[in-house]
Specification:
The chain has helices spanning 29-32, 59-66, 79-82, 89-92; strands at residues 14-16, 23-25, 35-40, 52-57. The protein is an alpha+beta fold. Bound molecules: zinc ion.
């Protein structure tokens, strides 16, 4: 038997870009385009063993900093989309066959 309760949970309400200071609130489109990097550096890291490393980047600063190395793939490049033509609704449609 499971008995449920409701507890308050912390969520990120606002992000600020470290390089440019752009602020985005949780309900804004820009918020969802932030890249937030956070990790604990390992042994031999140039940041120091066990150091916590963090940065929050808006999409413009991400592009400015890493643009030429970003591997940006259009949705059509995803394996599922490119194989969509192989889907035959009469054969693979299960409970939703062709009319
Ligand atoms: Zn920025």
């Amino acid at each position: 038997v499971k008995r449920l309760t409701v507890e308050p949970v912390s969520v990120v309400r606002q992000l600020a870009c470290d390089p440019c200071g752009l602020v985005a609130l949780r309900n804004e489109t820009e918020f969802f385009e932030f890249t937030c990097i956070g990790y604990v550096a390992g042994y031999g890291s140039i940041c120091g063993d066990d150091s916590r490393v963090e940065i929050d980047l808006c999409q413009s600063c991400l592009r400015d900093a890493l643009g030429i190395w970003l591997r940006v793939k259009e949705p059509m490049d995803s394996p599922l989309v490119s194989k969509r033509s192989l889907f035959k609704s009469g054969l693979h449609g299960g409970e939703f066959p062709d009319e």
